[in-house]
Amino acid sequence: MTSNTAPDPPPNLLHVQFKNPEYLSYLSHLHIVQPDPSHPAPDPAHPLTESNVMSYFATSPFFDRRSNNEQIRMQNIANGLAPGMGMGARQEETELRRFTGLEYVLVHARPPACFVVQKRWRSSPSEATPLAAYYIINDSIYQAPDLYSVLATRLQSTVYGLKSSLSTQRRARPSFDPRRGHHGRFIVPDPAPTTTSTANPTNSHQTDTHDDTALEEEADDDDEIDFEDVAAQPTVPVAKRARFD
Hints:
Blueprint: H1 21-33, H2 53-57, H3 68-78, H4 89-96, E1 101-110, E2 114-124, E3 127-137, E4 140-143, H5 147-172, E5 175-177, E6 181-183, H6 201-223
Antiparallel strand pairs: 1-2, 2-3, 3-4, 5-6
């Protein structure tokens, strides 16, 4: 029964960090058992040198098995040379000039900390086009990003920063009213708390008694008010008009 699910896309090698501790341990043991008199003894903690860095790079997912380097490695194994003990990087580069196609070449070496490997397409013994670059730092292999990836990442970071700052400014911008125009939001301070004074109870009682007496006097004055007689008010004379029959 066949599955209709689509295969997973290949991983983005720009996000891959590769390190092979087993092969590094093998190289350390190999230099102890079979030391190379033409090269100084490497550090057991960092055994990479110019003579074995390409064999270490061949174990990474960045290496293409269809390259000319793989053909040379297979020939060395057929001749009885153990991996890591074949020809050095410079000798391998000279050997690759006889082929055309995909190849990997060591272009910079500062053992044991830093190596740079370049991926090329060779069309003639004197002409090769660079395709990608890889760097090995402290036994870890990375792919160098291309110019398009660098610019795209920088532009995305710039646009995100601008969008965040504009959103912050939009929330803090002043309001607009057709009558008043643009106006800001002012914070009104809280009213001052009212203080209650504690008066003397005796004085308070006297004040209440005085107020009650004043209210009673006003009520008596209201009772003595004389109301005018409405009937006694003068009447307004009515003007008479002449009538002609």
